[in-house]
Write a structure and sequence with these properties.
Length: 294
């Protein structure tokens, strides 16, 4: 059952829908001054629209961003591997001058057993133009597959591995000593398995849960079959009708549901500076259709 029906609220947020079923802007609110009903309504809207954009949050700094996150859920450390540097431990700073790019389609930190549920991203330094971010709706993508392909991918499991992206950083820059993640020292990038189709724990909807950034292969099929299946799913996931694109402005904050989206940040601004600060909220173990049906 959806959280929307389990916990109804009279609070209505000023929502501007960006598409028929995916993405929305919310105007006229201050994320640092929400009451409890507004926080609940925002969480409900996030499950429904999957990615929300809130403009004009010029007063939000790292501390206020973290405080806001704690009202939505349990804030994690910024990243299992990356050193937080001169920002708070809960903040992951994506700085283009320190290789802070995200120019591959991915869902945040799926290479751990319990990937983050929600991410909150704040624009800190923006280039004069460029650096847009796009999000893909994994539930809409799943639902628009042919029935036969949906039935097949419902049965599949995939391996997620962060080695390609973060292996060198962990071994060389962190000397094998990452951060405390869910109470344990993160010292190695061990591949994990997740269902290819994830059942959302709040809405009950199914969505594709594979991404080019961290998914290495499908379990139980040949390498060529795995590559073919994943290529089909990636191409379908990122079709224009499944995607919303955000052009950043100073004061913007984006919130998205990692359980139902993937995203990509354009790297088209040359040597101009771009800094984004992200926090994540603790998630749960992904569940596939077979497990959810029990």
């Amino acid at each position: 059952m959806s959280i929307l029906s389990e916990r109804p609220t009279a609070t209505t947020l000023p929502v501007l829908e960006l598409g028929p079923r995916f993405g929305a802007e919310i105007h006229g609110i201050d994320l640092g001054r929400l009451d409890d009903d507004q926080v609940l309504a925002l969480r409900q809207a996030l499950v429904r629209y999957k990615v929300l954009f809130v403009r004009g949050q010029h007063g939000l700094d790292d501390a206020a961003q973290i405080d806001f996150g704690r009202r939505l859920g349990e804030v994690t450390v910024g990243h299992p591997v990356h050193d937080s540097g001169d920002v708070a431990p809960e903040v992951y700073s994506l700085d283009s001058q320190d290789n802070g790019f995200a120019d591959v389609w991915h869902t945040d930190v799926t290479f751990v057993p319990r990937p983050p549920a929600i991410s909150v991203l704040r624009a800190v330094v923006l280039p004069p133009n460029g650096g847009d971010t796009s999000w893909a709706d994994s539930q809409l993508a799943y639902e628009s597959l042919s029935p036969g392909l949906r039935a097949y991918v419902d049965t599949l499991t995939a391996v997620h591995d962060g080695t390609r992206e973060f292996g060198y950083y962990l071994a060389q820059r962190r000397k094998g000593r990452g951060n405390l993640w869910e109470g344990e020292a993160f010292t190695e990038l061990r591949p994990v398995e997740h269902p290819v189709v994830r059942v959302h724990p709040e809405s009950g909807r199914k969505g594709l849960f594979v991404n080019p950034g961290f998914t290495s292969h499908i379990v139980g099929v040949s390498e060529h079959e795995s590559r073919g299946i994943l290529d089909i799913l990636y191409a379908h996931l990122t079709k224009p009708e499944h995607v919303v694109r955000h052009r950043w402005q100073p004061g913007d904050v984006a919130l998205w549901d990692n359980r139902s989206t993937a995203h990509y940040a354009n790297r088209d601004y040359g040597d101009q500076h771009r800094v984004m600060h992200r926090i994540t909220l603790r998630g749960d173990t992904p569940v596939g259709p077979a497990t959810a049906a029990r």
